Amino acid sequence: MQIGVIVNTVYILINISHEFSLFFLILLKSSTMATLDSNILEYESKALLTPSLDDIKNVLSKGLPSNFETVSVDVVECPNLREAPFYLASEGLCGDPALLELGGVPYLLPLVDRTRLYDIKTMCQKALPSLPEMLVIGAGAGPYPFLGTNVEGIFNFKIESDGTVTNNSHVAQVDENLDCKLHKLEQNETRCALLGNLLLTQGKPGKVLRVHCKKRIGSLDFITSIRKTLADHYPSTIGLGGVFVLKQGKAKQHVMQDFSKTPIETETQLNTWLKFYEMPANLIAVGTLITDEADLDLRLQHFHSFSTGKWGGHYHIDTTPDVVEYEGYFVVGEQIVRVDKPTVTHKFGRD
After folding, report:
1. Which pTM value belongs to this model?
2. Which tens digit of pLDDT belongs to each residue from 113-163?
3. Residue range 294-300: mean pLDDT, rounded
4. Beta bridge partners of 25
5. If you ran DSSP here, which 8-state letter would residue 113 be given?
6. Rounded CA separation 284/276 (Å)
7. CB atoms within 10 A of CB 13
8. Out of the domains of life, which is the source (predicted)?
9. Beta carbons of 26 and 325 less than 8 angstroms apart
10. Residue 166 forms beta bridges with which residues?
11. Nearest to residue 220, comparing CAs of 30, 115, 71?
């Protein structure tokens, strides 16, 4: 009888232990997927140089022909970017434009820090509380809980004055067949993981910089050619944000696979983990560029694209220089806001 009681007691304890183990595993998983409170993150901001659009137009008009055969740079009224081929969440790019960088590559490499899961909506409201409404566009790591896997984020949503969100954001995924798959985010999904580079504006109509380039004759991609031209001319930090469309040709783009279980510490390991594709036009890319790090450990350029089909990802460069055509619309950031800057950093994996 005593032996039976002991056996039953041990059996019950084992089952209780098993249930507690499952409970703590679920609790651990939930805690690692909890969104960080935007109010407790560290924010730092710096004013940026804001030359006139006409001045930037003249600088780019002189510099870009070294990389493209056909170049047209103009100051124009912003077209309605809600319409094709742009499909943004607001019609314009104007109204107190600011650049925001959150997190950073050190939260992804060499191993992921899953605790870095942010709510962009509340973060932007905290960073720029004076804006009654806000267009948020840019590139980052998408919210991994959305599909249960690592994804590229293509952020494109409008925060209305009443707090509601019009969300045209997408995520790009490497599926089980190693193919690229594009998903539209739900209206209330405003999270971002690990890192992001965003343009924040009121999304109003107004004057913007239009950059139209065809036939690449140099080695630089569209965004790098703009950034380096500005960096060579202006002695202080200048930042742009906006949208461009690859209208003709194809582009080399990557999509991250699910988080690596082993450390990624070399370019070879990184490029093996990333999945590269040659993606055809039309590609609609959103993001930011800045001419230097401004002592804030910044990523100098970061654009992600989406499409009306299956394609989306991180823009590198066009692969069809003879036929490529770009059309972009940009505004000048008045400030850069740095959020949750890594305390331990590196320069690896920022292409």
Report:
1. 0.90
2. 999 999 999 999 999 999 989 999 999 999 999 999 999 999 999 999 999
3. 97
4. none
5. -
6. 18
7. 10
8. Eukaryota
9. no
10. 158
11. 71
At 13 the pLDDT is 35
Region 303-319: what's the mean pLDDT?
A: 98
| Residues comprising the chain, all counted | 351
Radius of gyration for the chain, computed over Cα atoms and rounded to the nearest angstrom: 22
Q: How far is CA 70 from CA 58, 62, 74, 323, in A?
A: 15, 12, 13, 11
Sheet architecture: strand order including 250-255: 68-77, 207-216, 325-332, 239-248, 283-290, 301-306, 313-318, 250-255, 275-280
Please report, as a single letter, which amino acid is at residue 40. I
Can you say whether the dihedral through the CA atoms of 48, 53, 59, 60 is positive or negative? positive
Query: What letter does residue 64 receive in the DSSP assignment?
Result: G
Fold held by 43-339: 60s Ribosomal Protein L30; Chain: A; (3.30.1330)
In sequence order, what are the residues at sequence separation of 6 or more whose Cβ sits closer than 8 angstroms to the Cβ of residue 79? 86, 329
What's the pLDDT tens digit per position in 210-260? 999 999 999 999 999 999 999 999 999 999 999 999 999 999 999 999 999
Give the model's pLDDT for residue 5.
37
Structure tokens given for 279: 């993606």
Residue 100 in contact with residue 171, Cβ under 8 Å? no
What is the domain partition of the chain in residue ranges?
43-339
- The one-character DSSP state at 238 is -
Burial 91-113, CB ≥16 within 10 A → b, else e: bbbbbbbbbbbbbbbbbbbbebe
Indicate the pairing of strand 325-332 with strand 239-248: antiparallel
CA distances to 43, 136, 280 from 324, rounded to whole Å, are 39, 28, 10
Mean pLDDT of 192-212: 98
Lookup: tokens for 344: 């331990």
Query: What's the rounded mean pLDDT across residues 323-344?
Result: 98
